[in-house]
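Appendix B, Record 12. Input sequence as logged:
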Amino acid sequence: MYVSMGQIENALHMYKYSIDFARSALGPNDAHIPVLLSDMAFTYQSTGRLEEASIAVEEAVQLSAKNNPMVYPTILCNKATITMEKGELEDAQKLYAEAMRIAKKQSDYSAVQEISSNQVILLEKLAARQKEEN
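Logged structural output:
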C-alpha cells in the first residue's frame, strides 16, 4: 500500500516491523519471514537500492529453502532479477535456470511463467551487451 502511494520509507519501516514481529511472535523459522524479506527486497530494488535489495533477498532465499520451499523458486527468481539489475548477467542466468528447474519440479506454473518472462529480458540484455562488445 505504501509503495503504491510513493511512501517508500514507510513501506520499508512496515516491512522491518513485520519481520521483527514475525520473528518474535512466530519464531525465527516462520514461513512468512522469507516472503516479507523478498517483498522488502523488491521495494529496495524498485528504488535502485540494489545492495540493500541483495542483502534482503539473500536472507529470503536462505530461509525459504529450509522453511518455505513452495515459495523458494519465486524468491530465487527475485534474487536473479536483482542480480540482473546489478549487471551480473551470467550469475542471473544461473539463478534463473535453478529457479526454473525447481519450479518445474514443483509444478509451480505461475513461477515458471514469471521466470520465463524474466529470462527473455535477460537474453535481450545479454544480446545487447554482446552487440556493444563487437
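Residues 16 and 80 are 22 Å apart (CA to CA).
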